[in-house]
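call fold(seq) -> tokens
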Amino acid sequence: MKNFRITFLKDLKIGRKLTLGFGILVVLTLAAVVFSYAGSIPATRNIERTNDVRFPTALAASEAQTDLLRMLGDVRGYLALGEDSYRASYAQARQNFEADLAELEQLSPNLSPENRQRLDQLQATFAEWSTLPEQLFELRDDQLEREPAYRLLATDGILLGGTVLLQTGQLIENQGRREATAENIALLADMAEFQGSFASMLSGLRGYVTTRNRAFIGEYEGNLAANQFAWERLDEQREQLTPGQQTALDTIAQNREEFLQLPDQMFEILESDRWREDLYLFSTRAVVLANEMQQLLAEMTRDQTELLERDLEASKQGLILTNQQTLVAGVFAIFLGVALAFIFWSTIAGPVRRLTGVAQQISEGDLEAQAKVESKDEIGVLARTFNTMTGRLRETLLQVRKEKTRADNLLEVVIPIGVELASEKDFNRLLEKMLLEAKSFCHADGGVLYLLTQDNRLEFVIVRHDTLNMAMGGSTGKDITYTQLSRPLALYDEDTGEPNYHTIATHVALTGASLNISDANQAGQFSGTEVFGRAGSYHTTSHLAIPLKDSQEKVLGVMHLVDAKDPERNLVIPFDQNLQQMMESFSSLAVAALEAYIREQNLRQEIQQLRIEIDEAKRQREVEEIVEADTFQSLRARARDLRRRRQQPKQDKPDEGESTG
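ret:
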């Protein structure tokens, strides 16, 4: 039977094999899906029932909490500021809150008895609370009703105080009609002082009542003391008043005494919780009832959330149970389908797909792709053919890329740099540009440029190092003072005359060949690998030293680069061999530019010397022409005659010694 099945599969075409295998797999998969869906229907209905009841109730209760807080905040805002926008906002929030209560009422048949009881209590509390905002708004709009202290001041206080001020004014007016004696004038001044201090005392009292600013208490108490002092002085001078003035003074005393009993009552009210009736009613009634409603809504929300989580967990467990049942029921079908699919995939579809993927990679340019040889049939032969073909193509393409890269770099990079070097007119700048361009092209961390002196020494002329932040020589104007670099390197031992092959730079200068060291730790034969080694704990790793040779193969200097870096990973790597060849080509161009510069400078010196000689001959010829001229000869004869005349008197004059002898 088994041999029959194998023969049957071999006789079928690949397309029919795949159709048969995947057809059976699809049928088994559909059977498993249908069974799973049928088992999940009850759990899905339970989840939907939960979402239709629990979630809307919790959401409505939560929104009611938000709207209640908003109503309470709007009432508080209107009591504090009195702006009509708060009343409008309150009306909208109340409308939303009532809509939330209506929604909870619709959902109440599905609620538990505890939540229905909470809803009834919530509606009753809201009915009691809903009358308070309008009452508070009316109190806020009527200052006399909302502020008892202000009402006491505006009624009895203003009446008694105004009467005192009016009667005092009449007293002053009558006093002004009396004879203007010194006593009457002094008495008139005391009356005016009493009136002024009483008015200031009343003003301070009004300020404290209207603002509750305790600074006005000091003003009131200070003026009260001044007024008491002025009153006592008036009372002491009662006998100086007319009978009518004495009667008026008694009336003022009575009204003043009644008035002075009012401030203590006002202060007691202002310092109590009921200094504003609207705020007192808000804090003792409105806030308390609102907190009760918030508590009820929070309990409903929390209860519905817990029920929602519990129902969802039950639905989840039901789905898990259904899935388990589905898994147990369909595992056998899945096993058969997977086994059949694996047979067809492993024998036909898998190898073909993998081979197709490799072919696609190769067509996209990935020549590193390799086809796995899984069998000895046609697919295996095709895989081996692919591998042979891609191997040969990879080798050919790699060689072509190397040659193209080298040619492109030579044309696009090295030659333009050489042309640029040839145009440089400053010697230090030329040397500096040679080193910097090579350092940049090789991604080197540091570099040194040596020139060979007349006494066979390599002298440091340009030094650059990024990590050590070192830049000496060239356009920097800084002398090379770093001790490891400041001493020239001798090509030959001063005592024995033996060649110095111990350092990288001298080795390259002596041999005339480049030196590429990938790891300085393994280059024990050279002592110059640590050209920057004395700079703290820094140590170099990779080195590339190239001789600078002229057209006669004579070494003019050495270019020494250290620590090539990977631009992407910023790690020290060996110098690439292709880059070494590029740098050798670059060094040839650089030396050519250097030779051209030296020749130009020598030619300039020769031209300058020739100009000096020409100018000297020209001046000598001009002098001879002047000397030979008739005018010059005439002047010369006159000069001789003039000297002769000056000397003649001296010869004719007797000597002083002789005249005195």
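The beta strands are 444-452, 457-465, 470-473, 489-490, 515-517, 543-549, 555-565, 572-573.
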